[in-house]
Amino acid sequence: MKTQYPTIKCHIATHYLADRSEPENQRFVFSYTVTIANLGRGNAKLLTRYWLITDANGKQLVIEGEGVVGEQPHIIAHEEYTYTSGTIIETPVAVMQGRYSMQTDDGETFDAEVPPFRLAIPNILH
């Protein structure tokens, strides 16, 4: 019988932090709040994260590590986990995407993909 992995969906809200940014020095600071919803039947522990950020110049930054914001949350079926983190980029617009490596209570691992989302200063895009 094939293992049924929990269904993980992510919602991202981004915010430009003008007070921490220095556009004249190509320093644009953003926060992003991620809500990870476990819509499946089983529980899942977030083990690692992988992010790929591509700025408007095509420069790519990879961020990898254990957990998120110092935690490896155990997300119970039909519950959510929310955290806020941030990043600094060199252009006023970038695209961020990634995945979380998750583990079921049975020890099976799977990836939960985070679709691309935009980091952009307000009113730069129509």
Largest sheet, strands/sense/barrel: 5 strands, antiparallel
Share of helical residues: under 10%
Low-confidence stretches: none
Note the gap between the termini: 49 Å
Q: Number of helical segments?
A: 0
Mean pLDDT: 94
Q: Count the E strands.
A: 8
Strand content is: over 45%
User: What structural class do you assign from the helix and strand content?
Assistant: mainly beta
| Rg computed from alpha carbons, rounded to a whole number of angstroms | 16 Å
Overall 3D form: elongated
Order of helices and strands: EEEEEEEE
Describe the structure.
The strands form 2 sheets. Strands 3, 4, 5, 7 and 8 form a 5-stranded antiparallel beta sheet that branches. The mean pLDDT is 94. This protein is 0% helix and 60% strand. The chain contains no helices and 8 strands. It has 126 residues and is mainly beta.
A few lines on this structure:
This protein is an all-beta fold and 126 residues long.
Secondary structure layout plus pairing:
Elements: E1 8-16, E2 28-38, E3 44-55, E4 60-66, E5 74-75, E6 80-89, E7 93-104, E8 109-120
Antiparallel strand pairs: 1-2, 2-6, 3-4, 3-5, 3-7, 7-8
List the defining traits of the structure above.
5-stranded antiparallel sheet, elongated, 126 residues, mainly beta, 3-stranded antiparallel sheet
